[in-house]
Amino acid sequence: MFRYMLAPIEDYTGSMFRKLCFDNGADLTFTEMTRVEGIVRNNKATLSKIEIKDTTPVEIQLLPSNEEQLAKYILGFKPFEGFVGFNLNLCCPSKNITKYGRGGAMVRRVEKINKLLKIIQKENYSTSIKLSLGLNNFEKENKVYLQSISETDANYYVVQAKTSAQKSSEEYDYSILNECVDTKKEIIANGNINTIKKVEKMKKIGCNGVMVGRSAVLNPAIFNQLKGNMTKPIKELTKDYEELCKVYNEREKYYSNFLKVVKSGKFV
Prior knowledge:
- This protein is α/β, with parallel strands linked by helices.
- It has one domain (about 5-265): Aldolase class I (TIM Barrel, Alpha-Beta Barrel).
- It is built from 14 helices and nine strands.
- Helix 4 (about 65-75) packs parallel to helix 6 (about 110-120).
- It is globular and about 45 Å long.
């Protein structure tokens, strides 16, 4: 089955935005990236990122730290209705993250990735990986991303088709998806996939789905649009989102940030 996924975006994809997208064609959603050490320490701001308000299918995206902290969290974790699995973030470009060998800097650390995967999979939880093509063009040319896919055993891989060093405005290199698919692993394409034509291209390559982020904030009904289904106008979607936020007591920042994007017509 070809799946359509909502990408996690900090301060935008809260619980009710995920529900809005799910109600408009998304098959799977993800929490905002969450630091494991913050969860273990019961940090209020960190825990708010994985607050679940309904039963929308969701994976919890983790920024892995050390194995001990991850094991402590996983052993104490209690699944909830709507929980699908965990997702490990190996693509965050922030220098405050990568300088510690995390996020995009972990793509090349196959041994470390396997240790983290085993901790989660030992408890029989589905675990996916979202990865970039490496920190820079050198790592891309040396295909560290391909090694990470080939030599680990996640349930599936979301491939962001650019390096962590590249800006969001730069072009994605979809050509690398062919060799990712050749690994026989389940591959989800990520990176400015916002038209049916691009979706058809991903299907032709052999991808198992697409992940959409910025385009979904601009239009939460893009999932139905990409599926060729009828879609609601943005004005109606905005009203739906406002009502969801009221009913489920969603934090104001999510709706406020969404309105700014809708009014400006662009995601900066």
